[in-house]
Amino acid sequence: MTRIVRRPGAFVCGIDAAMDVIGGKWKVLILWALNEKTCRFGELRRAVPGVTEKVLSSHLKELEDDGIVRREVYAEVPPRVEYSLTPLGLSLNAALEPLGAWGRDHIYRGAEESGAEDAVGAAVKPAAESVAEPVAGLGKR
């Protein structure tokens, strides 16, 4: 598959190139959900609360164009479409794990410094500790 570059010009650095692929509010959460399992569109929509169908569809198309997500259409009636991560998508999730660990530490550190650890910890810890670390190390739902 040929990579479609969505923006013209050269990238300034590797972070710039990576952000071109994962930029946007929802893409990392989509990757997180697909790290769990292969999903149909409706499952992804439920796994990423707040995302609209239009935005989810657009982000999935961009991730597919970038070689991160695989879209498989089954010749059934009604048609079934499933999304999963490609090997490149799996490697991207692995690269995001340290960023997620940093974010988790940052949340806890901020809560400890403000004395509000219970409020933030109660909202974040159960999800983070419930199962193994997913995309960006944020914890699985």
List its salient traits.
mainly alpha, 141 residues, 3 strands
Strand order of the largest sheet: 1-3-2
pLDDT below 50 for ≥5 consecutive residues: which ranges? 122-141
Topology as a string of helices (H) and strands (E): HHEHHEEHH
Overall pLDDT: 80
Number of helices: 6
Helix and strand content put the structural class at mainly alpha
Round the Cα radius of gyration to an integer and report it.
17 Å
Please report which band the strand proportion falls in: under 5%, 5-15%, 15-25%, 25-35%, 35-45% or over 45%: 5-15%
Q: What's the number of extended β-strand segments?
A: 3
Biggest β-sheet strands, sense, barrel = 3 strands, antiparallel
Molecular shape: globular
* Portion of residues within helices: 55-70%
Question: Separation of termini?
Answer: 32 Å
Folded structure, characterized:
The protein has 141 residues and is mostly helical.
